[in-house]
Write a structure and sequence with these properties.
Strand order of the largest sheet: 3-2-4-1-5-6
Distance between the termini: 24 Å
Largest sheet: 6 strands, mixed
Radius of gyration: 16 Å
Helix content: 25-40%
Order of helices and strands: EHHHEHEHHHEHEE
Length: 195
């Protein structure tokens, strides 16, 4: 049985400044490109049997620089749609809404390009991804190139937990790897946020 390899896209200007980048297509910084490139030798040794990526350019470029081939874009791997909070930092949101917590309070509607998503909708997308990739793990590792909050939701759903448990995981840094596996048919986190 293979492992599920979660790859967070490399650094962008918005990830560097802490701005919420859900559906806005932000390119990688030079540091983000270097981090993605540094993953290539390690991922070459693992040889995933399938690779899926968020269709946003920061994720697709990370996959390319990491040397992954046969990458299939999957819209279910896009980041949480932050709605009216798109482009804002947590501090800016809390300035408008004291005590705000994404996991508890969610987002507000935005414009047509950023209508916003409830946590249950993000969880439904990650459940769909997991339903598609679990059978592929019988043949080896599967790599998913995605985003920070999405990876946290996907991980807790892998573990069979409520999506709100994603708050218990540290936010994966840009350009890092995490590994989800099973032992005696029980899911677990084999490694988290590995540079």
């Amino acid at each position: 049985m293979g492992e599920l390899i979660l790859i967070r896209h490399g650094q962008t200007e918005w990830s560097l400044s802490g701005r919420h980048a859900g559906r806005t297509d932000i390119p990688l910084t030079e540091e983000g490109e270097a981090a993605a490139t540094s993953l290539a030798p390690w991922l070459a040794r693992r040889r995933p049997v399938a690779v899926f990526s968020s269709p946003l350019s920061r994720a697709m470029r990370t996959a390319e620089l990491a040397g992954l081939t046969g990458v299939r874009p999957d819209p279910d791997l896009m980041e949480w749609d932050y709605g009216g909070y798109e482009g804002l930092t947590a501090a800016q949101i809390q300035g408008r809404r004291p005590g705000w917590d994404l996991w508890r309070d969610g987002v507000i509607p935005g414009d047509a390009a950023h209508p916003g998503e409830e946590l249950r909708q993000v969880a439904a997308r990650t459940d769909a991804v997991l339903d598609r990739v679990r059978p592929l793990l019988a043949d080896g590792d599967v790599a998913l190139v995605a985003h920070g909050h999405l990876a946290r939701v996907l991980t807790v759903r892998w573990l069979g937990l409520d999506a709100s448990a994603g708050r218990l995981l540290g936010h994966p840094h840009p350009g890092t790897l995490s590994f989800l596996a099973t032992e005696d048919e029980q899911p677990f986190i084999a490694a988290w946020n590995v540079p």
